[in-house]
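so ive been stuck on this for like two days lol. basically i have the seq below and the ligand is flavin-adenine dinucleotide, smiles is in there too. i just want the complex predicted, nothing fancy, no docking runs or whatever. if the output looks off dont worry ill sanity check it later, just need somthing to start from for the group meeting slides
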Amino acid sequence: MMLTTESNGYDEARLGFQRRDPHRPAVIFPVTSTAEVEDAVRYATDHDLRIAVQAAGHGLNAGMDGGVLIATGAFNGVRVDADRKTAWVEAGATWRDVIEATTPYGLAPLSGSLPGVGAISYTLGGGLGLMARRHGYAADHVRRIELITPDGVRRNAEDDPDLFWALRGGGGNFGVVTGIEIDLFDVPTLYGGSLYFDFTEYPDAAEVWREWTRTVPEEVTSAVAIVPIPDIPPVPAPLRGKYIAQLQLAILGSGGEDLIKPLRAIGQPVLDTVGELSYAESGKIFAEPERPDSYRSRNVLLSDLDPKALATLPDLAGPDASSMSVIGIRHLGGALSRPPAVPNAVGHREAAYALTVLQPGEADRAEQYRTILEPWREITVGRLLNFTFAVLSSDELREAFDPGDYDRLLELKRRYDPDGRLLANHQL
Ligand SMILES: Cc1cc2nc3c(=O)[nH]c(=O)nc-3n(C[C@H](O)[C@H](O)[C@H](O)COP(=O)(O)OP(=O)(O)OC[C@H]3O[C@@H](n4cnc5c(N)ncnc54)[C@H](O)[C@@H]3O)c2cc1C
């Protein structure tokens, strides 16, 4: 099936989660199989059109005008091999689809904060998940990748070690991925959730979290979000209109309650959702909104967290909710700092924290990025593309990778997509 601008369902098929600058394609192929992806790529090549791919649509940075949009949302099967602890994940599957398939076996993927995010793009971009400090990046646990390159050829990426290296961290730049095989992990339960502290009452909440991250084992993956909360439903009543430090916690194994005692000692949270969860409930940890929205963001990877700069963040980020930024800081290290068994393009394993400044809405507030990020410049080691919702310059893109790797990726882009037909959210 092919949709044109005149077809019923055109808008539904082109709009994803990110509503800022959506795709305006000439035609859309809503695919459900590898053969249909091949047809769509062939159509684009025959008509000399560009190609964009959209799964759940969280990662879109610049909409494509004209061209062929391959909408993979309904190509979302997941096959679990419980004995090998792997899953074959089709192009459009979200983490929710994967988790639903793996939960009956007590197995879990290396998914992230929001289950509605597309599993393929998340993984191609590295993939920083809820068990990241224990198991590393999602891209570190990919066994096979099948794709259709822009010349219309179906390939197994493992047959070319360069291509397999590039896809795991280098994003959707080299072809339309039709499926990947990923590792699964035994996770009967998680201890996790969020402690929401009112900043006005507990201005040192983020600092206590920073200190705490220096003491925790790899079983603990955590983050803090500094969020001015609007005074509107559906926000839970206790949070409305408050400036919050949300401590987001995911702890594997037993002993979680003891481990978080220093955080509970901060004081009385406005809301406390921490407890035992099944992995199927893991979306409750960050409790991010599921409704489509417009947003932009910038991210930096840091070698440390400077307590002085940390203390200034609440003032710089808000607290006026109409022009606010949401600041998220994730604790890295542990398995994230170790290279995977099969090398990949994920960069900057030396980073200790990832800091993201997210600006909701349609306005660009470049000045606000500058004021917030400037104090961190000296300890910035790179950037994480999955948390960057903006069109980056080539110099900025280069900073996402280890020295030399950006040029190697460019060389592979030229080899597999010499006409630059495939548009990725972070285009090489
Ligand atoms: C609320 C929220 C929470 C998030 N949490 C996390 C997190 O915890 N950890 C993390 O690492 N990231 C996280 N992300 C980032 C997320 O992983 C990226 O935005 C990712 O690109 C989203 O994938 P998608 O399928 O939803 O997006 P889409 O917009 O559908 O895809 C993004 C891009 O990926 C490429 N692409 C998609 N499918 C294919 C394919 N089959 N073949 C080739 N290229 C393809 C295309 O270039 C496309 O433009 C989060 C994002 C949001 C909005």
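The first strand starts at residue 3 and ends at 4. The longest helix spans residues 34-46.
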